[in-house]
Amino acid sequence: MGKLKGKYAIITGGGRGIGESIVHRFLDDGIAGIAVLEYDQNLTEEMVSRLGERGSKVVSIQCDVSNDKDVENAVAHAMEQFGTVDILVNNAGITRDSMFHKMTDDAWDAVINVNLKGAYYLCKHVVPIMRKNESGKIVNISSISAFGNVGQANYAASKAGLIGFSKTLAKEGGPKNINVNCVAPGYIETDMYRAVPEHIIEEHIKGTPLRRLGKPHEIASVVSFLSSDDASFLSGQCISVSGAATT
Ligand code: CAA
What we know:
The protein is an alpha/beta fold. The protein is 43% helix and 16% strand. The protein contains 7 helices and 7 strands; from the N terminus they run βαβαβαβαβαβααβ. α1 packs across α7. Bound molecules: acetoacetyl-coenzyme A.
């Protein structure tokens, strides 16, 4: 393998779920270093040093992606450690599901601030580095909910926003050799998904032509591909990885 050999990455929300799988996949693919930005630091020191035993440098940085100063500090920390950023994966995301007519302002703001504004802050601090390098890969984790999902008006708006944001950065970053893409996962077995009521999980599986939930590693493999030079002419796209489910 080794398709990410010599590369340095920042990934948000990399301590569990899809993010954790992406970290493992990047290590399998020979990445030189990963800065894992986490709000609640699920990665303990022991886990970080165990990940580091796989031959790559791994650093865990506490960061609230919805806070510009935190993000600025985290990117500066990654730069001190690695000297550059080749790959940025905006994966951190939260849900506050409710029917729209019951949705609170807090639920709206929390989801937009983490899922959409968080990606904005990361790009704000990383894009200048990539422009200077005239090289970079950005992968933003959207969702099939971007196309509309009952109970997720806030989440859908944030994830649809990420698609427009990514397509715009792809057009602006193209002349500087920066590729920007989205991955839109379907229903994936993660802690986040476990909050969904049982009868709705059954509906989701019925609505998924492959008739099952996805696994985090099935998202990570696509993220790794998009982060590598195998995807060097692929930019401005949103790839649904959903077992053919649409919302
Ligand atoms: N379409 C239209 N109306 C619907 C509906 C549907 N699909 N499902 C439920 N309703 C209606 C119900 O009939 C009910 O109507 P009445 O009030 O007239 O009886 C009303 O909506 C409220 O239904 P509930 O009693 O179920 O409402 P609730 O407030 O207890 O729960 C909910 C609502 C929080 C949205 C809950 O249904 C839920 O959690 N749904 C799952 C949302 C979901 O798919 N989340 C995905 C999480 S995974 C993820 O986000 C990752 C990713 O990227 C995909």
